[in-house]
Specification:
The protein has about 300 residues and is mainly α. The protein has one domain: MetI-like fold (Orthogonal Bundle). The protein has helices at about 1-35, 55-65, 65-95, 105-115, 120-130, 135-145, 155-185, 185-195, 200-230, 230-235, 260-270, 275-305, and strands at about 245-250, 250-255. The chain has a two-stranded antiparallel sheet with strand order 1-2. It is globular.
Length: about 300
C-alpha cells in the first residue's frame, strides 16, 4: 500500500503540469490535424456546416505556386537573419570579453536592451522610425545629404526594413549565449596557444570558434525556429506589404512583398478566404519543416560532440 500511495502522490504532483500540457499543446495539435481535412471556416464553425474534404486542402496548398514562393522567401529570410544574429552576436561577445575594454557593464547593458525591452514596443518604435516622411531614419539621411528612402512602400526596402528590425531584436540573445560559451573556455588553452606561437587570428579560428560551436549549435537551431515563425515583426512593420503583382502559372496575382508562410497562415485563417482548414494544412507544412530542422539539430549536436 505504501508504494501505491507514493505512486499516487508522485502523479498527483505532476498531474497539473500534465493537464496543462494536454490542454495547451496536445489538444490544439490534434484539433489542428482534424480541421486540416475539412472546409471549416469562420462562417460555418458555429453552425457545424463544415464537411470532410479529405486531402483537398493539402493538394491545393502543394499545387499553389504562391506556397513555394513564400517558402523560398521564408528560407531566405531565416538564413539572412540567423547569419547576422550569430555573426554579430559572436563579434560583440568577443569584444566584451576583451580585458582591455573599459566600461564593460555599460556596453553590456546597452547591447542587451533590445532583448530586454518588450518586442511589441520595440517593433512599434522601428515602424515609426521607418516612416518615409516623418521617420527618424529618413530625417537623419536628409540631414546628411541623402534622399529619403521609401522603407514601407518599396518591396525591396520593406524587406530590408523588417530584416533590420529583426536583427536588432535577435542579436542580444546570441550575444548572451556566446558570452557564456566564451567564459566556459579555459584561459590556459589560449595561453598555451600563444606560447606555441599562434597568432590571435589562429587562436580564434582553430581554438575559440570550434569550442564555442558546441555552445552555439542549440541556440542557432532555436534561432532558426524562432525566425522561421517570426510573425510580430512582419505584421507590425508592414503587415506583409507592400502589395505587388506577380505572374504565377500564367495568371497575375497580388501578393505581399514581405509576406512569409506564417503571415500567410494568419491571413488565410482570419482574412480572405477565412478558411481554417486551409490555414491548418499550411501550418502543418511549417510544422514538418521545423520538425526536420529539429532532427537535423540532433544530428549536428552528435557530430559536434564527437
Amino acid at each position: 500500500m505504501s508504494k501505491v500511495r507514493e505512486w499516487l502522490t508522485a502523479y498527483g504532483f505532476i498531474a497539473p503540469a500534465m493537464i496543462a500540457i494536454l490542454l495547451i499543446s496536445v489538444y490544439p495539435l490534434v484539433f489542428g490535424v482534424s480541421i486540416a481535412f475539412t472546409d471549416m471556416s469562420v462562417f460555418n464553425y458555429l453552425s457545424h456546416g463544415y464537411k470532410f474534404i479529405g486531402f483537398a486542402n493539402f493538394s491545393e496548398m502543394l499545387t499553389d505556386p504562391e506556397t513555394w514562393i513564400l517558402t523560398y522567401r521564408t528560407v531566405i529570410w531565416t538564413v539572412i537573419n540567423v547569419f547576422l544574429h550569430v555573426s554579430l552576436g559572436i563579434a560583440f561577445a568577443m569584444l566584451l570579453s576583451k580585458p582591455w575594454l573599459k566600461l564593460k557593464p555599460i556596453f553590456r547593458l546597452i547591447l542587451i536592451l533590445p532583448w530586454a525591452i518588450p518586442s511589441f514596443i520595440s517593433i512599434q518604435v522601428w515602424h515609426a522610425m521607418f516612416n518615409e516622411q516623418f521617420g527618424a531614419i529618413n530625417q537623419l539621411l536628409t540631414m546628411i545629404g541623402f534622399h529619403a528612402i521609401p522603407w514601407l512602400t518599396s518591396p525591396t526596402w520593406a524587406f530590408l526594413a523588417v530584416i533590420i528590425t529583426n536583427v536588432w531584436l535577435g542579436v542580444p540573445f546570441m550575444m548572451l549565449i556566446a558570452l557564456g560559451g566564451l567564459n566556459s573556455i579555459p584561459e590556459e588553452i589560449q595561453e598555451a596557444a600563444y606560447v606555441d606561437g599562434a597568432s590571435p587570428w589562429q587562436t580564434t579560428r582553430y581554438i575559440i570558434l570550434p569550442l564555442l560551436l558546441r555552445t552555439m549549435v542549440p541556440a542557432i537551431v532555436l534561432g532558426i525556429i524562432w525566425t522561421f515563425n517570426k510573425f510580430d515583426v512582419i505584421y507590425l512593420i508592414t503587415q506583409g506589404g507592400p502589395q505587388t503583382v506577380v505572374t504565377l502559372a500564367g495568371h497575375q496575382k497580388v501578393m505581399g512583398a514581405t509576406d512569409l508562410l506564417i503571415t500567410k497562415i494568419y491571413k488565410t485563417a482570419f482574412q480572405y478566404p477565412n478558411s481554417w482548414g486551409a490555414a491548418s494544412a499550411l501550418g502543418y507544412l511549417v510544422f514538418l519543416v521545423l520538425l526536420a530542422m529539429s532532427l537535423l539539430n540532433l544530428q549536428i549536436q552528435n557530430f559536434v560532440k564527437e
